[in-house]
Input
Amino acid sequence: MKKILTSILSLSLLSAPVMAKDILDKLTVTDGFSISLFADDVENARQIAVSKRGIVYAGSRKAGNVYALIDHNSDGVADRKMVIATGLEMPSGLAIKDGDLYVAEVSRIIRFKDIDKNLKDPKFDVVYDKFPTDRHHGWKFISFAPTGELIVPVGVPCNICAEDDKYGRIFSLDVDTKEIKTIAKGVRNSVGFDYHPTTNAFWFSDNGRDMMGDDMPPCEINRVDEGEEGAHYGFPYVHAGAILDPEFGKGKSIADYKSPALALGAHVAPLGIHFYNGKQFPAKYKEQLFVAEHGSWNRTKKSGYRVMLANVEQGRITKYTPFITGFMQNEETFGRPVAFAELADGSLLISDDFANAIYRVSAKKK
Output
């Protein structure tokens, strides 16, 4: 891997906090790639989505805002930021379908119709408002399935507890009929998922419970194959397909629950995951899985704080290696990667809710 030293262009309409500028000099990216700043001063940037016109939309959690970031001259740097919504309740997740921008708050999904054409006067309607109102693990990542339903997770309102069927699940929502179905249950808190571009298998991350020590239990990457919709992934009884919970696991059998596709390190907090489907990166990266390890918050020695690459072959993860490191050094946090999106040129965007930034990773030209 090679240290990337990147000078930051001043943006006419975007201020440049020291944190966002400084972090690029600290990041190390895999050989053959460069990393630059697409946008800074995007407070608490979480999930990102790109419209057909190339406008990048970003949600937030703590800030309560939704942003539109515009790169007018297509040079890979946003030169305009617009705040299109404020005062929302943890609008962390967003997705685009048929030109409409869908935003997930804690208890509802709202929609900005034909958003690219209405940036100066955005208005929304409420699509669905029957999700739980609990703020603990109430923020959401959303995306549309290949079949058109909106995928919405509902985390549990606790560290460890057994709740009713409103919680600990990933749902699919038909935004027209409002019909809701369960895709996966026994899921503590998923803040990232994606469909494999070829097989359409559904993959999702899950954050393991706290207060079992520094090294237990593992966080998870899971897979839902065709015909497995509604399978139980263990929480709160079994963790990572191998560990009975000391409180809720009594009398339970590990064999009754689905094991993860990959058990990660404890507390690394995997959030966004993304199958690369662009044409800019070398062929070996096609349909491989990028994982944003947001990083631990209560471990004695910090873990995570990096972007990882999971090599997927025939539905199995065969290798898991660092792609970008340096977000945390010597126990000091400089950034926390969250989510991914692709630009039309095949470069990869990565949001960072700690540095208030969105990075752009490009393959170096030979």
User: Anything to note?
Assistant: DSSP finds one helix and 31 strands in the chain. The first strand starts at residue 2 and ends at 3.
